[in-house]
């Protein structure tokens, strides 16, 4: 039994920064120092503070190390593991301070979070089923199979107030209840009717990695959740629709399913009960539209993944015509905790309409980018400034974008907004699956709206003309505006077209793709007008609208800009003010970057 | 592998309890071996190994064994600090593997401070 556990984060982010090499180096150095009986190296899922990776957490003292490199390892092992002197140089240092915080439990990023779906992150080895069981894993399933009726389970989930974490926020208990009644009804005619539960792990929002992280860190929580759901709805089989771009998540889930089968936690007569249930992984090809329920089902069936009209809902006629229930990764991961700890406990967390916690992937212009789980009702300010530690380089916050390409922009003045399904909807954004992109003053609203639309336009399956053609037309208008050719009437046209796309598209992709445009028009109309009326891009992003100048009063004639300008557009004598030839200028911005006294500027 | 029964979960959890306690830093007692250069030179590693073996042998699940650096009293190394939950820490000096095992038995398990090896109760004030 070792006295010290070196928990190395082996999520996709940390591996891409060399975590596996570091793990090998760690193991080699431990052998070299004859510490193999003292120290155990454990691989874990994402710790959450992904931007500081590769990350190593040393237990039992909870020392947090960041930006670990292979060359740091010999010193770290000797100093900390052998001599008990934690290495200060590798610890977390808060923004703008110089004294490091050694313990993970004292770092604001971690201390302000509340973990339910991510309860096992960084604590267990995702490839060890015994470690999952040690943290009360599969106890909820045992409780369900030994003493709860399917109705009891559904009541518990309903009372807890759990809502779908994949985007729309439909009450999970209600969804299960509808599916169960369909199964009971149809089994009257055919006794052996199959019923499927599906885990939607087709996470496709740009910058979002909540689901991947849960699968990588704690795959058994999803298996257990699906087994409980399967029992409640009378399902026979489960599928995990996992996108092929997540090879590590797929590998970990495969291992987890194999181990669960060996323990008899999947398969025939689980825990000696009458309940038999099995789970298979389906590797999706990574089409965004497959996150939509009906498309996902068609993809599983092996036909072209296009959405179909609802009703019939999947609960009525889903996979191969059988009653089917689809929930998102995070929803499934919450289920065992609700069963173990009870609906009352869960419903006390969060707000009146949105119970529990939500996992967000915090990305963009924020110091502590990473994965955070927070109670519903927390304000955006707390997420961005307390947990996220604010905006880098003392820039001003412009907006927070939630919900990915289907979501909306929340302006900085609404930072006091509590995060729950209803409040976000009121301001034209959505909870979505949990993408949260922080944008500073250097972000152009027109440009970023265009970015999201380009994504959805690419990912449109093309079935509905409003979505297929409408998205292209929206991009054309936005292009026109950012080229300085926009007219005021374009804004009304944008709005009208957005509403038409929303109304006439069949699935969620089309219905929500205008959201980035609608919400920016609502909160940042002035910035659109700056582009149209004043032909100006306040953030300096839309190149056709930017002009570069040199302030003659400030310029000392150092000639640096003239030497660096790739277009030879800057002229001037030594110690005399320089000038930019706007006809030659390619607007690369190098002059502004190199000028040491701030004489070169853009407007 | 035979199929699990509900009661098997507790068996596995009990087997793994020590691992999880260590990860969560939860314990009834913390035993800290001071492993500065001075401590190691005086034999702290043999003390550490003895304590690890003894904890393993006695199957103590609620005791965390960890290390710290030089406690500042280099001439009296190897030193060990025992922190029982809700009690002030106790520092022991001039230890050998056998003395460390005795402390484990009498103090950590029995709850009685081994006065003949103890230096002091309490720690320095920090800041």
What is the topological layout?
The complex is a heterodimer of chains A (603) and B (127).
Chain A: E1 4-9, H1 12-16, H2 19-32, E2 39-44, E3 56-59, E4 63-65, H3 73-82, H4 108-111, H5 129-134, H6 139-147, H7 150-160, H8 172-189, E5 196-201, H9 210-217, H10 219-233, E6 237-243, H11 247-262, E7 278-284, H12 293-301, E8 324-328, H13 329-341, H14 343-347, E9 357-364, E10 370-375, H15 380-387, E11 397-402, E12 408-411, H16 421-426, E13 435-440, H17 445-459, H18 465-482, H19 489-504, H20 508-512, H21 515-523, H22 525-532, E14 548-550, H23 560-564, E15 570-571, E16 579-580, H24 590-594, E17 600-602
Parallel strand pairs in A: 1-2, 5-6, 5-8, 6-7, 9-13
Antiparallel strand pairs in A: 1-3, 3-4, 9-10, 11-12, 11-13, 14-17, 15-16
Chain B: H1 6-24, E1 29-34, H2 37-42, H3 44-58, E2 63-68, E3 80-84, E4 90-92, H4 97-109, E5 118-121
Parallel strand pairs in B: 1-2
Antiparallel strand pairs in B: 1-3, 3-4, 4-5
Helix pairs in contact in B: 3-4
Task: Describe the 3D structure.
The complex is a heterodimer of chains A (603) and B (127). Chain A has 603 residues and is α/β, with parallel strands linked by helices. Chain A folds into five domains: 4-106, 3-Layer(aba) Sandwich (Glutaredoxin); 129-346, 3-Layer(aba) Sandwich (Rossmann fold), CATH 3.40.50; 357-440, Ubiquitin-like (UB roll), CATH 3.10.20.600; 445-532, Up-down Bundle (de novo design (two linked rop proteins)); 547-602, Alpha-Beta Plaits, CATH 3.30.70.20. In chain A, 39% of the residues lie in helices and 14% in strands. Chain A contains 24 helices and 17 strands. Chain A has a five-stranded mixed beta sheet with strand order 10-9-13-11-12. Chain A has a four-stranded mixed beta sheet with strand order 2-1-3-4, covered by helices on one side. A four-stranded parallel beta sheet of chain A has the order 7-6-5-8, sandwiched between helices. In chain A, a hairpin with a 7-residue loop joins strand 15 and strand 16 (579-580). In chain A, helix 7 (150-160) crosses helix 10, helix 10 (219-233) crosses helix 13 (329-341) and helix 19 packs antiparallel against helix 21 (515-523). The radius of gyration of chain A is 27 Å and the shape is globular. By secondary structure, chain B is of the alpha+beta class. Chain B has one domain: Glutaredoxin. Chain B contains four helices and five strands. Chain B has a five-stranded mixed beta sheet. In chain B, a hairpin with a 5-residue loop joins strand 3 and strand 4. The longest helix of chain B is centred in the N-terminal third of the chain and has 19 residues, at 6-24. The radius of gyration of chain B is 16 Å and the shape is elongated. Chain B starts with 5 loop residues before the first helix and ends in a 6-residue tail after the last strand. The mean pLDDT of chain B is 86. At the A-B interface, strand 1, helix 5 and helix 6 of A face helix 1, strand 1, helix 3 and strand 2 of B.
